[in-house]
Design a protein that fits this description.
The chain is α+β, with helices and mostly antiparallel strands. The chain has helices at residues 7-12, 14-17, 70-77, 83-88, 97-103, 110-113, and strands at residues 28-36, 41-48, 51-56, 64-69, 92-94.
């Protein structure tokens, strides 16, 4: 497993870090990740029937939209920035806090997964 460095690589690594056993039966969601900067991009993350799919671009109607800069996203995933503080201080915008609180536990954080 190659350690993801850029925000784009980190988003694409969600597939490796996905923990389907943590999802409630029948859990379905669509997330848009809109990460600005050279190392970011726009992504649609879809979970359905215990399967995760990631597409480049923003597709369909999301349940939650996350907007941030590439550096902030990288720092959160690697544990250099506290995600809650980043949201509180407006470095990360989240359209549905309840939805993201269900989403986050479904993944290993990069800092733990790529030791």
């Amino acid at each position: 497993m190659q350690k993801p460095i850029s925000a784009r690589e980190i988003v694409l690594s969600l597939k490796e870090r996905f923990r389907p056993e943590k999802a409630d039966p029948g859990y379905e969601t669509i997330f848009h990740l809109d990460i600005s900067g050279e190392r970011g991009g726009q992504f649609t993350v879809r979970i359905s029937d215990g399967t995760l799919n990631i597409e480049e671009g923003l597709h369909d109607s999301p349940k939650c939209i996350v907007t941030t800069k590439d550096e902030t996203y990288e720092d959160m995933e690697w544990g250099r920035t506290n995600a809650q503080m980043a949201v509180m201080f407006g470095k990360v915008k989240v359209s549905d806090l309840g939805e993201i609180l269900d989403f986050i536990p479904l993944f290993h954080q990069c800092a733990d997964f790529y030791k």
